[in-house]
Amino acid sequence: MVTTVELPTRVALMRRRLLDILLPPRCLACGAIVGDTAALCSGCWSRLAFIEAPLCACCGRPFEFALGEGALCGACSKARPLYERARAALRYDDASRDLVLAFKHGDRTDSAPALGAWLARAGADLVRDCDLVLPVPLHWWRLFRRRYNQAALLAHALGRETGKPVAPDLLSRKRATASQGRLGRNQRRRNVAGAFRVHPRHVSAVREKRLLLIDDVLTTGATAEAATEALLEAGAKAVDLLTIARVVRPEYD
User: Fold this and answer.
1) Which site in 61, 77, 96, 168 is 20 to 30 Å from 112, CA atoms measured?
2) Which pTM was predicted?
3) CATH code for the part of the protein at 79-246
């Protein structure tokens, strides 16, 4: 006997199965048919390099071996970034690049739930400590051309996964900047210097709050530091950074 409580669940399950027959779910990376939505095939999953401890207590750079609690990498020992802590789910390499770029530029927004779950796992401590989650914003013109802000999708996915409040409009990009992709470290910093602001009507939401900033990839940290600077100037207590992937360069680079 089917109760009235069970019926909607069974109907939804039947619809899901019918949809899977007509449009079978595909791997988020390579497009191969998989058993569930927002999933990877076994081959693509095995190629991903998830970042695990031990790592730098500040920037989250993975270490080859444990250096003790609170250990810092060489770069953070010389000059700590403006953000307090950064964590990333994956190394940005050949395996993760296609996944990230498809999400960012290829309309694979269906990846967001899986990526949000990976963020929640990689940044568990940061999520636990934060008051608000917010994305690195796009300038309105780039948002118009791309049609979505990938960082905002990640922030909302993380919010749904963890129950943390998301503030997508708290931070804004007040001027258009050139793409960072082909710029060097110093060029990136000059490119985004002063590019962000907290609107006066949102200052009260920032003041004395610990904020969790979300972006797709951490490369040199120039964008994250420029955004963090604007948030700290508006009175934020601290800013942490959480990304899907991060570039891991040799320590001497």
Assistant:
1) 61
2) 0.84
3) 3.40.50.2020
